[in-house]
Amino acid sequence: MSGHVNRHNCVYWAYENPHLTIRSQLNQPGITVWGALSSEGVLGPVFFDGTVDGNNYLNMLHDMVVPQLRTRANFTELYFQQDGATPNYALLVRNYLDIIFPLHWIGQRGSIDWPPRSPELTIMDFFFWGVVKNKVYERKPQTVDEMKEFITDAFMDIDSDRKLCRTVCQSVSYRLDACCNVDGGHFKHLRD
To answer: Which CATH number applies to 7-181: 3.40.640.10, 3.30.420.40, 1.10.2020.10, 3.30.420.10?
Structure first.
């Protein structure tokens, strides 16, 4: 609620000394939200109450995400990418994804392995969550319910701009080329 975001999943590359201390109040009210972006638009938001584990993440995939994805004409060609969060890596989740997307899921030990901590290559990291956070915090939510409303509005706003969604997805190939050009090493933040 304070505008301070859980930095556990945030990685910053800089030339300056990385010894930075960020002070924030512990145990503030907040929420955990899941979302996805494709060239066809946005999925979500899905809000989790409490801790996300392999079981409730799998239930979300099974009950909400995969049924929505199955309605797409290109479902059999679709690639599903997820980050390396612990619930996403649970064996039961990986087994489920192996069945649903046998050759088309990207993630830790997925049918297509993905480099850990690669925010420059992942749409949700280099674009989506930053835009959502900006849209939400510029409105200064005062309650968790208000925050959920503002997050939902931000998702809908991004979803309504399909040209933007396509452009962001297409930028991944440029980013992959940049990564290959430095033999998989780190590269400066790209300005598409």
So the answer is: 3.30.420.10
Question: Minimal CA–CA distance to 53: which of 97, 92, 103, 107?
Answer: 92
> Per-residue pLDDT for the chain (192 aa), expressed as one digit of tens each?
666 555 545 555 566 666 666 565 566 677 899 999 999 999 999 999 889 999 999 999 999 999 999 998 889 999 999 887 889 989 999 999 999 999 899 888 888 887 666 777 788 888 999 999 999 999 999 999 999 999 999 999 999 999 999 999 998 888 888 888 888 777 665 444
DSSP annotation of 120: T
Can you say whether residue 140 is alpha, beta or left, with left for phi > 0 and alpha for psi between -120 and 50 degrees? left
pTM score, two decimals? 0.80
